[in-house]
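Quick one - inputs below.
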Amino acid sequence: MKSDIPETCLQRLPIYLNYLKTLPRDGYISSGAIARALNLGEVLVRKDLAYTSAQGRTRVGYNIKELYAALESYLGCNDKKTAVIFGAGGLGSALLSYGGFKNYGIEISAAFDNDINKIGTYIGGKPVYSVQEAAEIIKKLNAKLAVVCVPAAAAQSVADLLVSCGVPAILNFAPLQLNAPQSVTVRNIDVAANLAILSSMI
Amino acid sequence: MKSDIPETCLQRLPIYLNYLKTLPRDGYISSGAIARALNLGEVLVRKDLAYTSAQGRTRVGYNIKELYAALESYLGCNDKKTAVIFGAGGLGSALLSYGGFKNYGIEISAAFDNDINKIGTYIGGKPVYSVQEAAEIIKKLNAKLAVVCVPAAAAQSVADLLVSCGVPAILNFAPLQLNAPQSVTVRNIDVAANLAILSSMI
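Output:
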């Protein structure tokens, strides 16, 4: 676990990576230029990038190719990781069909649902299994990441199941706080709350 | 604009609200009990809730009904707000069908897409219009919120359109930083990056 990096810094690393993708891969870029492009402070940019293996050079900046590789390495983009999705409804189906995970070395390998009309089908080319099969399939796939896209009322029981399967990391879209032991890392994305927060900021 | 509240506090207010939803509405709850339930510090909880109009009482705690109302009021849940979605693909369609926005007083009223097979249809009961009609419809709806669910390559042009329409708040799911004037508030949700961050934390 990268416990030395504050989570707020870690959250910015994909932003740098996405920005670098828009640049030609040869040449150099200064922390100031990155800061201006992303509307961040230059000192903050230097501090963030110092967590990676990239070395900025005085008056020259970062070698773009090296910085790109350092960010990819830090974020584990080159390690293969298997994830599963619980809930093959609208959001779950959208994520099953989304190609962007592979940029981070993440393969969504299976989904689980209770709907007998979905079990046994493929969504985005990925098999949908019954929730009853989850423990076995998760073990077989050696999945360490799970995405929870079930309704709020079902989310805690899915979380309990994931904990019992030894899945150490959960991305939760259901609008509630999941109870999980400290050994399990949970991140929440509450889309409606994000829109409400945005609205209260204007 | 609620400029007095740090964004990290603001982000926690929906978490308190969701937690209170699981409790009986009559009675009292202490900041300590909230802190334990949500795995947060008690001082932090008290500081966060002090931004709302809720008044905690020594040795009694918060009246749950009053705290609920104070959080709802602070987050504008009782104000009606109109939002539109750009991109009626998998994610856009899932959000058009999602019922959770109304808890925050947000109505998703229309979607815009370039696909002639989608234009003129309804998804989740919401009309899908051509992007060419967006300026007119946004004005008619008086929409102040927009959700960007288009591919990364199209997202900046959608943002430019939204800025030209005077939309002050954008929730962006495309994996890039949008350029927008300071008067426009942009929040980003990069699902793949969130999963990568989670993965790098285990």
